[in-house]
Description:
Layout: H1 12-20, E1 22-25, E2 29-35, E3 43-48, H2 56-72, E4 81-87, H3 97-110
Parallel strand pairs: 3-4
Antiparallel strand pairs: 1-2, 2-4
Amino acid sequence: MIGQKHRFHGHNSLRYVYSNGRTVRSKDMAIRFADNPRRKNYRCAVVVSKKVSKSAVTRNRIRRRIYELVRSYEDQIQGTPDIVVTVHSDKVASIDSRQLAKDMFKLINDASLIG
């Protein structure tokens, strides 16, 4: 899990990323990001809709897996971006961890968030 200082607080803080951010998408998830010069640290949120899975257990498993992958790239993230990862498929809950890490790395790399 990422630290408290790297999390979004409240729905209004996501509004900036949704209105001003750029998007990189794969078939199972998408990353929307926007640079936020008013911050000292990056922030990240993972959005998993009930359309993905009705089960809260499954949605939370997906959320924890994504947060852990983002935390593993914490020291490589350049600047102070606001990052929103939106999951579109329930396959993310059961996919092999190596494959998920590879997919996530490709998205983060395509977004030019790591250096």
